[in-house]
Design brief:
The chain has helices at about 50-65, 90-95, 110-125, 140-145, 200-220, 235-245, 260, 275-295, 310-315; strands at about 1-5, 5-10, 15-20, 35-40, 75-80, 100-105, 130-135, 160, 165-170, 180-185, 225-230, 255-260, 275, 300-305, 320-330. With about 325 residues, it is α/β, with parallel strands linked by helices. It has 2 domains: about 1-170, Peroxisomal Thiolase, Chain A, domain 1 (3-Layer(aba) Sandwich); about 180-330, Peroxisomal Thiolase, Chain A, domain 1. The strands form 2 sheets. Strands 1, 2, 3, 4, 5, 6, 7, 9, 10, 11, 12, 14 and 15 form a 13-stranded mixed β-sheet that branches. α1 packs across α2 (about 90-95) and α5 (about 200-220) packs across α6 (about 235-245). The chain is globular, with a radius of gyration of 18 Å. The two termini are about 25 Å apart.
């Protein structure tokens, strides 16, 4: 069923299994206690950062499938993307598997988009098990969007740190303690921000637009959720989102959490916190899903955000169009509050 821009899933597809791999900086924070694999070397034994990013994504997918008690033959489709040109991390990772591949590009909102589309495939009956996955790497993202690390450029205070990590989950028609009940499709929003270092300010309006439409379509209120999670707004973007919601009479100050704010141990040392496709992928597929499986969080709204820019568009002086897709999750664990 569909209402407005929100899909309501009749069969309530489940998060059957999940896995996350994070880098050496990320493991120093709370995520280090929940990720399946934590790296001591962000090269991950590879010769380039891009190969390391691909290896992390492939590893997270393999782990998620294995933890679900499945094999490649059981997976109907892999839905994945990343930040690199032509989504090469996802495409190259797909070479390691025998299941069909649907490549996505939604920048840092790829995790919520891949979950949304996987749930739609499962709910429609076209698939029984889909893998939703994405990842990023600090060094590969810096080289593509900003400056190679070798230049030693000074980072401005409004910048975020692209997360080194990858996450994957299996969306299934039967097994799992976490149900996907609905999802709201995002609309592109562009408020004229041109600063490629200020992703939080660029993406916050897209998050606000999607979350408010989700409330309207579903008839829910902020207090209906234990957590309202955005993907990678960072500290500044999170504050802007709260202000935008407050202006429309929605108070999310008590239960809003941004993955970019919590992923690092000491946010003051990381400027505005984390961003990147791997930011929400790692946090959701380790910390959040583990808490939901244990029944500690009953109802969660996950709205990752993506900046749909390129080096070419930025070089031409274009502003940054952004998008956010929201996925509503409910814990089915015994004793969930």
């Amino acid at each position: 069923m569909k209402k407005g821009n929100t899909l309501f899933f009749k069969t309530r597809p489940r998060v059957r299994s999940y896995a996350a791999i994070c880098g050496s900086k990320e493991k120093e924070g709370v995520i280090g206690n929940y990720a399946d694999i934590t790296l001591s070397d962000d090269m991950y034994g590879e010769s380039t950062y891009e190969k390391a990013e691909c290896k992390m994504l492939s590893g997270a997918i393999s782990l998620a499938v294995e933890k679900g008690g499945l094999t490649d033959c059981d997976i109907d489709a892999m839905l994945s993307g990343d930040l690199l040109n032509q989504i090469i991390s996802a495409s190259f990772a797909a070479r390691d598997f025998e299941f069909p591949f649907l490549g996505l590009y939604s920048a840092c909102s790829t995790m919520s988009e891949s979950m949304l589309l996987s749930a739609a495939l499962v709910d429609s009956g076209f698939a029984c098990n889909c893998v939703a996955a994405t990842g990023s790497h600090f060094a590969s993202a810096e080289r593509q969007y900003r400056y190679p690390l070798e230049l030693g450029c000074t980072r401005p205070p409004q910048s975020q740190w692209t997360v080194t990590g990858a996450g994957a989950c299996v969306i299934s028609d039967a097994v799992g303690k976490i149900a996907i009940t609905s999802a709201t499709l995002g609309r592109v929003r562009d408020w004229g921000v041109t600063d490629v270092n200020n992703m939080g300010a660029a993406m916050a309006p897209a998050a606000a637009d999607t979350i408010m439409r989700h409330f309207k379509d579903t008839g829910t209120k902020p207090e209906d959720y234990d957590m309202i999670i955005t993907g990678d707004l960072g500290a500044l973007g999170s504050r802007i989102l709260k202000d935008l919601m407050w202006e429309k009479s929605y108070d999310i100050s008590s239960n809003h959490v941004d993955c970019g704010e919590i992923i690092y141990k000491v946010i003051e040392d990381e400027f505005q916190g984390g961003s990147g496709a791997g930011c929400s992928a790692v946090v959701m597929n380790s910390y959040v899903f583990t808490k939901m499986n244990a029944g500690l969080y009953k109802k969660v709204l996950f709205a990752a955000t993506g900046a749909l820019l390129s080096t070419v568009s930025s070089g031409q002086g274009e502003s940054i169009p952004c998008i956010s897709h929201a996925v509503e999750l409910e814990s089915l664990a015994a004793g969930a509050q």
